[in-house]
Structures
1.
Amino acid sequence: MKKTKKKINAAILIIGNEVLSGRTQDANVSFLSNWLNDNCGITVEEVRIIQDIEKKIILNVLDLSKKFNYVFTTGGIGPTHDDITSLSISRAFKARYEFNKEAYQILEKYYGKINFNDGRKKMAKMPNGSSLIYNPSSAAPGFKIKNIFCLPGVPSILQSMVGNLKIYLKNGLTTINKNFNLETVESYIAFDLEKLQNKFLKTVNIGSYPFFRLGKVGVSIVLSSQSKIQLNACEKKFIKMVKNKKIKLFKNN
């Protein structure tokens, strides 16, 4: 008998004072969300941004780990004093914070014994029982413990590592999106969109996003579903509504 895929959800926990201060612009949420959906059928349902404070990390990790199938953290696993994600997660799960033998060997080989200083050694410390997430860019691995996946905050490094997540993840249902740009305003279609959403309340999500570009006002409509049949049915009714209201469609770029 063929196994039916189930919905699998996830949360992203961004850890870093630099993101909250505005000094660093986060680029990881959109990348991770798209990658997880497109490659694994995993839907990101919540994102949190917190400071590099041990108590906050512990509380959020424990809370999210109970609510979601998977939790992905970014940031705080580097060599400096404020990189406390690994230590905090060790304490969250009451696991020993110690050198991972394989991670230590990887980093020692990468930097060489002479240049393998205490800061670099710190990147080999993680909760006891962790599995490594290999890093093809800068050697320092991320790690997995329970349903928590700890990744670096630097976008280019994170992006190089995500392929190594797949061995730990179960595939769920991929969300399919269809986009339409309408030459109208939201108030003109609000009632009709609400009626349409109510008809497909449990199977299709309808997003409405106003825009102004090239001197024209419009509304971008996004239909999202994990069922191709339901998405196509909703699309037909949506197109019929657009034609009945004599709304022009912009060409999608």
2.
Amino acid sequence: MRIASLGSGSKGNATLVQYRNTTLLIDNGFSLRSFSRRLDRFDIDPGAIDALLLTHEHGDHSSGVQRLCATYSIPLWTAVGTARAVLSPEFEYRRLVAGQPVSIGDIEVLPVTVPHDANEPLQFVFRQSDNGKRLGVLTDTGHITRHIVEAFSRLDGLLLEFNYDVEMLASGPYPQSLKQRVGGDHGHLSNEQSLELLRRVDTTSLNCLIAAHISQKNNAASIVDRLIRQLEYVPAPVLADQDVGFDWISID
């Protein structure tokens, strides 16, 4: 299994997960033109994407989803609450329910409920259909729950949100209401919260760690990299970028 990103951050998110003949797309917060331009470097035809999994309705994850799926006949999978919030009433989709895995081609998808200020937000754990290698994707989460610790333990790969530095958010340019939203229990994960998750989960099989959704105004990649490298038993991180995401990374 392997993972790549077309861009990660508050200006747009789209992530690819691929195994054997199956290609999944998580979210699309980009226009059709921008998405196509970003996808070109991966040599993938949009029509070859087997499914798009939509985590929640916020624009940096959903704004380009409906048009992309309609243009290239990509099946859309999402929760009922998310669909009601963002999709046209007549748009057809396939329902995801937290805790109920679904098989899409060669990949099993486990939707995981998370605390975020959206209608029915989900994040995902992916498992290869044959040898059980597991990859987690966890962003847009306000705080760590026991359920999240259980779901994201014993992974081979993990893409994890490191959204903000507490001091930078407090002193940064956001209005107070937005600071409270981002730093609240249904906002995003701070560097400290994500580090705490890594301390609590079982990382014995983790060979790939990607730090994602790093705020351009309230965080810095250099801070995230330094903090993660201080942890024991955690691989050196790959840092996802807003403009280019990251290229294919194999989950061995």
3.
Amino acid sequence: MRLLKLLPILFLFSCIDLIIQEEIYNSLYFTGGSWIEFAEIDSMKLESNDFTIQFWVSGGDVNTNEAPAMFSIIDPNDNITLAILRDMNQKNSITTIINSAIDKQEYNGLDWSDSDKFYLFSFNFSNTKGLNIYINDYKILNSSSLDVKGSTLNVGAIVNEDRTILENFWQGYIDEIRLWNTILTDSTIKFQSEHPDKLGDNYRYTDSLGIEIPTYIDSLIGIWRLNFQEPLTIIEDDSEHDNDGNIYSLSGFSVELSEKGAK
């Protein structure tokens, strides 16, 4: 994989130029050259090293010589802690980079060539159980635990904190991003993959006195629905934890609003 060491490139960045195409917007279509920046993972109100990141994504046509990256986590020394890339040569596989080691994972239920089919990617991080990666409700990988302290989260590219590494831009659709302050169970992930519009089978439980019982829903500390009604550069966190992100594009590139979405 080619990692570009760039000269200072802030002057090349432009606030995202969103191209309005449809009246109903459910996702963002990344055409290359754009990405979403979030804060360091351990600053987004995480209470432990057990957490879950989820993405609803879809593919489509690719016009690049680099494997597009869904997201990347880069440590303070500019090493890739974790990155997931869409494989350009096979429609049913992904390339994983874990602690800079590159591997390929295949899943017969995956078809990157179909832009209308969205998949729920879930990443369970745990010091005791390691990293588990799911496509819908199918576990495709179990790996050792990862240290994300001080690491930045970027969606749609491989990017480090000071942007001297900036490449492998995503080409495809992203419908929704979620951050949980807990490890989601297999049954929860299965339910979510079967019901894209629901986070759980019940939002709140109550006891015999009508008092709300805490559930895993209370651990949702970031949800970015990407359902824009107008062009924006800030990705607001609908969980009200103020973990907003920002969209950036290189000069000459843009992200489009799309009516496509998980169904």
